[in-house]
């Protein structure tokens, strides 16, 4: 018998469709407001002593004789499509059954493809080296920060320049990586329609409305960028870049203590370098 079930992001349902011969079987059960990663056969109907009842977690080998068809194929596909539509703008659906390593690899491939023609300014290194350095800072920060959302931060770190510096639109990130990641990248993207002096303050204000892991990516990005500057930079530009780093530290230091301390040290090192090379 078909059951009409509401689908919304506050009451996500486990859903599985299994095919045996030409029949399609399905189970749908509420999971108290969150999608759990795990067994597709978490809740099913099974026959015990000739009576059908709801079962949980019995071996797949029992399915042949003890699995009751709940929906026909058309009904099952319709319900699956409804569930997909309800979750289409949520990172929940994007991240089910994916570990951090898989999320990292997918984001790295996407970033490498989008930045493939770009080099790190002043070098012959591919631009993806920069993203790798930023995500390295994120991984170490995660080891030093309780409750750190590493899947979110690692993906945002790898993708943080894609909207600003490539042809990747927000919607492409939304479809590939989910809303949380896409919104984080968008906050890190400077709005070039604003006057140049307003672009960084505007971005920082938008970052501060995001989870602390997005703050951490901005801190990690500037840590990575505080290397010896390109030789063609003037002394004035070097000082301006250091002052901008001080602003980032001041605005985002509460986002991650480990990275804030790292950034403060890098600002000092950068200042020493600028002083020692002031005649160049």
Question: Can you characterise this structure?
Answer:
This protein has 280 residues and is mostly helical. It folds into 2 domains: 13-87, no CATH class; 95-276, Orthogonal Bundle (Hypothetical protein af1432). Helices cover 54% and strands 9% of the residues. The protein has 13 helices and 4 strands. It has helices spanning 63-66, 73-87, 91-95, 100-114, 128-143, 150-159, 162-165, 170-177, 179-187, 196-207, 212-225, 235-252, 257-276; strands spanning 13-20, 23-30, 44-48, 51-55. A two-stranded antiparallel ribbon has the order 1-2. Helix 5 crosses helix 11 (212-225), helix 8 (170-177) packs antiparallel against helix 9 and helix 11 (212-225) runs antiparallel to helix 12. The longest helix is centred in the last third of the chain and has 20 residues, at 257-276.
Features:
280 residues, mainly alpha, Hypothetical protein af1432, two-stranded antiparallel sheet, two-stranded antiparallel ribbon, 4 strands, 54% helix, 9% strand, globular, disordered N terminus
State the gist of this model.
With 280 residues, the chain is mainly alpha-helical.
- For the termini, the CA-CA separation is 80 Å
Q: Tell me which oligomeric state these chains represent.
A: single chain
Number of domains: 2
Structural class estimated from helices and strands: mainly alpha
CATH homologous superfamily title of the largest domain: Hypothetical protein af1432
Kindly report the CATH topology of the largest domain. Hypothetical protein af1432
**Rg (CA only):** 25 Å
CATH class wording of the largest domain:
Mainly Alpha
Number of helices: 13
Largest beta-sheet details = 2 strands, antiparallel
Instruction: Strand order, main sheet: write it out.
Output: 1-2
Mean pLDDT across every amino acid position: 74
The count of β-strands is 4
Tell me the series of helices and strands, N- to C-terminal: EEEEHHHHHHHHHHHHH
Question: What characteristic shape results from the CA principal axes?
Answer: globular
What are the segments in which pLDDT stays under 50 over at least 5 consecutive residues? 1-72, 92-97
CATH architecture type of the largest domain? Orthogonal Bundle
DSSP strand (E) fraction? 5-15%
- Fraction of residues in helix: 40-55%
